[in-house]
Amino acid sequence: MIDVAGRIEAQLQTLSLPATAKLVLAYSGGVDSEVLAHGLSLYAKRHPQRQVLLVHVHHGLSANAEAWTRHCQASADAYGLTLKVQRVKVRQGPRLSLEAEARSARYLAILALMQTGDLLLTAHHEDDQLETILLALKRGQGPKGLAAMGARQPLDGDKWQLRPLLDVSREQIEAYAQRHHLAHIEDESNADDKFDRNFLRLEIIPRLKARWGAIASTASRSAALCAEQQAVIDEEVSKRLPEWIDEAVPHGGSALRLRGFESLSPAWQALLLRGYIDRLGLKPPSQLQLEQIRRQLLHAREDARVEIRVSGLVVRRFQTQAYISAATEEAPASQRALTSAEMAELLAGKTLQLPLANACGLRLCLTDTGPRLRLPAAGEPVTVRFNQGGSLRCHPQQRAKGRELKKLWQEFGIPPWKRAGWPLLFYGDKPVAAVGLWLEKSAVCAADESGLSCVLEDGPL
């Protein structure tokens, strides 16, 4: 008979937990989470100083959802544990996976109740691991996908997810529930084989087990080997990737340097591309999509404007760098004029923070040091403008001669897709600064005069 409380304690002993860390159980009321809730209640009695919380997510997808909530409350009361019910609305639509959307809603609801250092316990077991491996094979995933679930994994940056039952069979869990007379709910959707996991659970895994009784445990060993190999790959990628990242791009953020990238093997190119996407916190594309990205970045014509949109990503090439970001709809930036009250505050020495598009801001302040603009003349309006024509002539103070704006964008390395949203400061109808890039030579104040400092801040454009 498995010792669930002992398993929880053994896993927690491998972590250095602050005294305030809370144990949060994703509690559906099904047999798996019921067994884990029972074991957690025994652990809580041995360690009364540790905070424990059961979280039941009410998805609103079943006519029995309210009954399940009542069951979970009654069981929590019997265990002497606190229960929190989170009600969520699951997105549904023709192109949405109900399984995936429900899972996402569930995790977000649970994470909302967790603080830094808290641990999430889930009741995944050996058969769940086999399902995950089979789904990874179906999707054509590599070692990272085939590594499936870990018994301990980082969660949302500063939290952990623990799976104390991951190497326990479904039969052992059901035997534990019978031994301790645990009542549990039966979700009728588990019998619907239109869902991939249910199809595997109902149709495929029983036949695999009938032929190879140890298939779940041997597949778990394969997953562990894949996890070891992936850890080595991740370690090597983390060592090599920094030399290919340019953090000093003039518009903030970072870019992947492509000069010399073609000298690497295609396998390493793909690994570094995927590693960079992961570093940005973006969802990785499929293998076929990654290959499309790799080929276009490296083999398109020198003057080609490369822009690839796949899996919620936008991949662009400019000069010898690749820029990767999430595909989001951004509202066009609009002109912003400083009011007379703002000008009065500015000239009185107050710093102005002006919010701009794309999570950026413009900071203006009066200063006697550093690069600064002359003060605007009386009646000379001050405006922040965007999307100015490329024929506009500007004369950066560091240049001997002026040039057209479109040439200066190229000179300063500003990619085409960033130019329309770049803030230009005007006095009247004359440009006086491309914020964060240059001050106009004719608008720079004398060395012994006070002037305006204009700084781009709060993130990349």
TrEMBL record:
Compartments, record wording: Cytoplasm
Positions of ATP binding: S28, G29, G30, V31, D32, S33
UniProt keyword annotations, A-Z: ATP-binding, Cytoplasm, Ligase, Nucleotide-binding, tRNA processing
Domain of life: Bacteria
This protein's GO CC annotations: cytoplasm
GO biological process: tRNA modification
Pfam families registered for this protein in UniProt: ATP_bind_3, TilS, TilS_C
Keyword Ligase in record: yes
EC number(s) on file: 6.3.4.19
Residue span(s) of domain Lysidine-tRNA(Ile) synthetase C-terminal: 382-454
Catalyzed reactions: cytidine(34) in tRNA(Ile2) + L-lysine + ATP = lysidine(34) in tRNA(Ile2) + AMP + diphosphate + H(+)
Signal sequence segment: none
GO molecular function annotation: ATP binding; tRNA(Ile)-lysidine synthase activity
Domain notes: The N-terminal region contains the highly conserved SGGXDS motif, predicted to be a P-loop motif involved in ATP binding.
Entry's family note: Belongs to the tRNA(Ile)-lysidine synthase family.
NCBIfam families, per the entry: lysidine_TilS_C (TIGR02433), lysidine_TilS_N (TIGR02432)
Function, as annotated: Ligates lysine onto the cytidine present at position 34 of the AUA codon-specific tRNA(Ile) that contains the anticodon CAU, in an ATP-dependent manner. Cytidine is converted to lysidine, thus changing the amino acid specificity of the tRNA from methionine to isoleucine.
Protein name: tRNA(Ile)-lysidine synthase
